[in-house]
Amino acid sequence: MNYLSTSRWIRALCIVLGVMSSAWVPQAHAERIKDLAGIQGVRQNQLLGYGLVVGLDGSGDQTTQTPFTVQSIISMLQQLGVTIPVGTSLQLKNVAAVMVTTSLPAFAQPGQTLDITVSSMGNAKSLRGGTLLMTPLKGADNQIYAMAQGNVLVGGVGAAANGSKAQVNHLGVGKISGGATVERAVPNSVAQGATIQLELNTSDFSTASRVVDAINRRFGPDTAAAMDGRVIQVKAPTSTDQRVSFLGNLENIDVTPAQMAAKVILNARTGSIVMNQAVTLETCAVAHGNLSVVINTDNAVSQPNALAAGQTAATANSTVTITKDPGQLLMLKAGVSLSEVVKALNAIGATPQDLLSILQAIKASGALRADLEII
């Protein structure tokens, strides 16, 4: 990364974090229970199948290197009453072995169609223009829940520009809209028993307590009870029709979730930094190369002396004085926002790797009051 591109990246990130720092005031807002939790037993189920795509224009598997494709073709032909003489060498270029995947939604019934993804598992160059032959799709219990077949659509084919060919997609994967038909329904326990279980998307005792209070206010005392920080047990009508209506009303109850734990996400490849709320720091001292930043948590504008060769930047909550003085420490006072620190480092030309190293060191010292996740 050259100096010019790094400077542009730093200025862009500085602007974004500046807006976050000045305008970011965490405000509580209500969300539907539907967005905070799911109903136990109401879930998707993954389906998987192995099949053959035929009709390719010479872009199929090289059968000398993919013997499973030849075995599949021979087995299929035998089932159709065609016998291949022993010792026959099949040289097929228009066939590809594929894996077919999809998700069976909750309450899916026989006859319903599903979109499927077809992926080459051999060395086929392209699945474009091929036709998937009838493929059974099985669940984790090895039972067949759907049958798939249809023409494979590979979108975004490569385009040529100025005499050069540019490939803009991966031709080994295609989709078939409505390519699978459900043959078996998955039983569920939602309509059984006197209670249902709500499961929060993220475990949080405060949010679970607020959901329980909201449900009890809407449907009466003792309707809901928290089992732990994620699971909430709710009494529901036994009649199927009444239970569906009850769940519809329950899902639309507004609840103000508790503030989530502070978290910082670092992308080690791009240097991107994302914070889910105003993260602050404990008092600490960091030395990294020739970087030196002093942050004072007051509202006054501080101007460095002429010999410091520094810059002064003021915000509504703090003043950041930035210098490049070898041997000095980066002094961070308690309560300083992490966004202010990142802005200060960006302003003096810190690279993405500098930011990652400094933040990792601050976290290791225990001064960063947030979970640090590196992706």
Automatic annotation (TrEMBL):
It comes from the Bacteria. It is found in: Bacterial flagellum basal body. The keyword Thylakoid does not apply. Keywords: Bacterial flagellum, Cell projection, Cilium, Flagellum, Signal. Its main location: other. InterPro entries: Flag_FlgI. Residues 1-30 form the signal peptide. Assembles around the rod to form the L-ring and probably protects the motor/basal body from shearing forces during rotation. The basal body constitutes a major portion of the flagellar organelle and consists of four rings (L,P,S, and M) mounted on a central rod. This is Flagellar P-ring protein. It comes from Undibacterium hunanense. The lineage of its organism: Bacteria, Pseudomonadati, Pseudomonadota, Betaproteobacteria, Burkholderiales.
